[in-house]
What we know:
Number of domains: 2
CATH architecture of the largest domain: Alpha-Beta Complex
Strand content: 15-25%
CATH class of the largest domain: Alpha Beta
Number of helices: 10
Structural class: alpha/beta
Radius of gyration: 20 Å
Distance between the termini: 19 Å
CATH topology of the largest domain: Quinone Oxidoreductase, Chain A, domain 1
Low-confidence stretches: none
Amino acid sequence: MELREIPAPEIKSPHDVLLKITAVGVCGSDIHYYKTGKIGSQVVEYPFTVGHECAGVVEKVGASVKRVAPGDLVAIEPAMSCGQCDQCCSGRPHTCRRLKFLGCPGQAEGCLAEYLVMPEQCCFPVGKNMNAGQAALSEPLAIGFYAAKKAQPLKGAGIAILGCGPIGLSVMVCARAFGAARIFATDLINERLEVAGKNGADWRGNPEGQNIVEQISQQRPLLLDTVFECCGKQEALDQAIELLKPGGKLMLLGIPETDKISFVIDKARRKEICIQNVRRQCECLQPTLSLMEKGRLNADFMITHRFGLAKTKEAFDLVAGYADGVVKAMIDFSR
């Protein structure tokens, strides 16, 4: 990874917004590209700019822009959909046939840059009581919101979150807001379990030293309504099938480093488990921001480390190595 001087982007469409980036969160998918150079069929060709969790201040707007104005702090929706294909017209812009996503090879350069141009539809002004870090954090939190929404009903439910990285913790915060009654959380990193315990998990365990299925089953003999798999590990998938009650839901959010995963189909079939993939989020950024502004979703605790732009590589190495109890590293452009 290196810093490069490149020409500043320019507004080309009347619907474009020129942003001065103020904060970028380091995401697990960024780390996938950093460590392995790909996610599935999406392969990086160097040089390529990553990053998609960002906030910025509006510098300039195109002639037709009405939603935002210069000086506004905005949260960014990194997915740029066409608005015309069958997916967009059926309310699924997140699976748009011509989708362009920030920091995704073959689609769009990322936001780890001082300036960025985005379409107006992707710019969401935030309340005056929110800061740049919170605005950037709204992107992963919106994924948690979407997953919790897809898993409804959660009110009174017993759930498990397998993997307490930023996405798992985002799910935890949102599931609690949706009314989950009891939340079990697991992770291989004890520091992350401590964070989960302090911010919403009723029980937490580390699979390396505990029999997760046995211990949760003792507390919930009828097992769980929903399990959110947020780490992309085969072992977690196996645990999820065991933990779910008949008719339960398995929500898949984790991105495996392997191309294939498997299920014990006998158990999954006999329990009639519903398996739901979660693809980022769909039109959940604005409701997430609204709840954040009202104080109903508070995820500030996830930002454990801050770095200036010049130390971005240090941030990526920290996150890639799960070092120093890191949950979310934030690149702060004011540093």
